[in-house]
Amino acid sequence: MECGELIKQYLLSLLTVFRKKIRGKKYTLPQILILATIPDKGMDMTSLSEKIGVDNSTATRLIDGMVRLNLVIKRKSHLDKRITIVLLTEKGEQTSEEIENKLDIIGEEIFNQIPMEHQDDIKEALLSFHWTLLKYNNSV
């Protein structure tokens, strides 16, 4: 299997895990990604849209829907009023924590299916691949 095909298959498999095991009926995949992305101190809209890979107008629509669901709030930056900061509400923090807990459990379940003698090598390879992806994304 070529590298591009392998990456596509990983992506599809991960999306399936998110859709079946994490999303449930409540939230969309983009909403889950946003909840998992916003740090405790909040994040500006431009950085958020770049991080989840959508344009600013799409991020704005997603965030506005999440404001209506009481998952996030929007505030103007104290330093620059043109910048909008997105913060998790208490409900958003709880939902984000639930998602993180589910991800930890699912990750363990998947990882435990790998023979013990290969787990360290697989983890090291995944960390290396992730680091390479980060560098690649920052260079494009």
From TrEMBL:
Phosphoprotein is among the record's keywords: no
Domain HTH marR-type intervals: 1-135
Gene Ontology MF terms: DNA binding; DNA-binding transcription factor activity
Coiled-coil segments: none
Gene3D superfamilies attached to this UniProt entry: Winged helix-like DNA-binding domain superfamily/Winged helix DNA-binding domain
Alphabetical UniProt keywords: DNA-binding, Transcription, Transcription regulation
Presence of keyword Transferase: no
A Pfam cross-reference name: MarR
Alphabetical list of SMART domains matching this protein: HTH_MARR
PANTHER family named among the record's database cross-references: TRANSCRIPTIONAL REGULATOR, MARR, TRANSCRIPTIONAL REPRESSOR OF EMRAB OPERON
Protein name (record): HTH marR-type domain-containing protein
Native source organism of the sequence: marine metagenome
